[in-house]
Amino acid sequence: MSYIKSAVSCFLRQESSIRTNNKLENRKRLLxxxxxxxxxxxxxxxxFAATPEPVAPQGxxxxxxxxxxxxxxxxxxxxxxxxxxFEAALGNGTVGAIKGTAAINIPKSIQxxxxxxxVTAIKRHAFQNWEGTxxxxxxxxxxxxxxxxxxxxxxxxxxxxxxxxxxxxxxxFCATQLKSIRIPxxxxxxxxxxxxxxxxLESVEVAPGSALVEFGHSAFAGDRKLRSFNIPNxxxxxxxxxxxxxxDLSFPADWEPxxxxxxxxxxxxxxxxxxxxxxxx
Length: 281
What we know:
Layout: H1 2-20, H2 24-48, E1 68-72, E2 75-82, E3 85-90, E4 104-106, E5 109-112, E6 115-122, E7 134-137, E8 145-146, E9 158-159, E10 167-168, E11 180-183, E12 189-190, E13 203-206, E14 214-215, E15 228-229, E16 237-238, E17 259-260
Parallel strand pairs: 3-6, 4-7, 6-8, 7-9, 8-10, 11-13, 12-14, 13-15, 14-16, 16-17
Antiparallel strand pairs: 1-2, 2-3, 5-6
């Protein structure tokens, strides 16, 4: 837009000049300025033209790309058509969308309108306050994302996170009853409060070849029973209060994170934690 303003200003100066001095050279400059203005307006119109909304394939009830709430095997899902394909997420964004106490196996895909829709996410709050204890996944699961608060304050005791998982959001497993957890190799960040205040958590196992690089603020805060954690050397950032209250957790002797935020190891009493206690990078 600044380009067009400049061109218009130039045009007005040229026009004024022509009124006082009607030389051929001035008329040529005026014509060139008009062309610049028209070209700029054309570009601007193209920039701000409405982009057509993607449309789902014929033979579906979607029409324009709008998330659809559906039910499969008694559980709520949201199905979305995005980037040329359908995806399903378990839950519907409301607190406690998953009810009951029965163990749940999350499938690779669900059936909708005669199509196999891959289950790629667990929506925020889906299992929050859930009374059940066990969640499993299909062996060939394609789940990629677990959203914030997904299992917050639930009675969850056992879950086998699939290897396809690449993202977990804040406080997803905060205040659950997990006793152990295995971190899949593709997960790069354990975010803020993810496993905080898991009063029964005793061990964390990181898969071989892990992509882990960061622990977020309070990621394991308050996990007083946590004793075993094979932290890989790839982890170079420890957020503030990350291990606060993990009193007796031992840390690998060869692990030296580059960044430790304030209070990252507050209250840790093991001999292996002493080298970290005064760090605040």
